[in-house]
Amino acid sequence: MYAIFRAQGKQFRAVEDAVLRIPSLAAEPGDTVKFDDVLLAEQDGDVHVGAPCVAGASVAAEVMNHGRGDKIVVYKMKRRKGYRRKQGHRQGYTEIRILGIDLPDEPQEAGATSAAAAPGPEASPKPGAAPKAEAAPEAEAAPEPVEPPPVDITPVARKLAEEHGLDPGAIEGTGKDGRIVKSDVDKAIAAKEGD
């Protein structure tokens, strides 16, 4: 039995009686902490996958002690500039011992698969009239309006087109990658005045 849980923004694999080092917690040694963000759990071959978390699952742990990791040296320099900085750092951590993994009685996939399987037969065509009647309102729903792709136009050309009441989508661009430039708008204005 194991579980993948999230603590302090990082993910850890929990097995009963395992000792883990996680980012520092605000808890005293000897305290019991509970992690509810269980992303995945396995028990007797049954895998519980969360979406994003497994409902009702938790990991209980005991805080053993706090400490600081190995020292790393951060060194920066810029050549020929006389700039050098040397700094050491030891990252703090909390050492915990996993007491137990609490999982829900019902596997989460069973509920998810039954919910996913329920719409399947309704969506498939059947001789019955009820599924067709339910599918019809969904089909009659108004389609979402498709927005035209944004027009690539320079700011000067956009302002000039707005002043003369031209639609930038109707102007053919001759700039890089088809971008509309001021000269393209000038040609469109000349063509409009010629009409």
Please provide a written account of the structure.
With 195 residues, the chain is an alpha+beta fold. Helix content is 25%, strand content 36%. The chain is built from five helices and eight strands, in the order E-E-E-E-E-E-E-E-H-H-H-H-H. The protein has helices spanning 108-117, 119-123, 129-140, 155-163, 182-194, and strands spanning 2-7, 10-14, 19-23, 32-35, 38-43, 46-49, 58-78, 83-102. The protein has a four-stranded antiparallel beta sheet with strand order 2-1-5-6, with no helix packed on it. The protein has a four-stranded antiparallel beta sheet with strand order 3-8-7-4, with no helix packed on it. A hairpin with a 2-residue loop joins strand 5 (38-43) and strand 6 (46-49). Helix 4 (155-163) runs parallel beside helix 5 (182-194). It is elongated.
Total helices: the number is 5
> Which class of secondary structure composition applies to the elements?
alpha+beta
Count the strands?
8
Low-pLDDT segments: 108-124
- Fraction of residues in helices? 25-40%
Cα-based radius of gyration, to the nearest Å: 31 Å
What oligomeric state do these chains adopt? Answer: single chain
- Proportion of residues in β-strands: 35-45%
Strand order of the largest sheet: 2-1-5-6
N-end to C-end Cα span: 79 Å
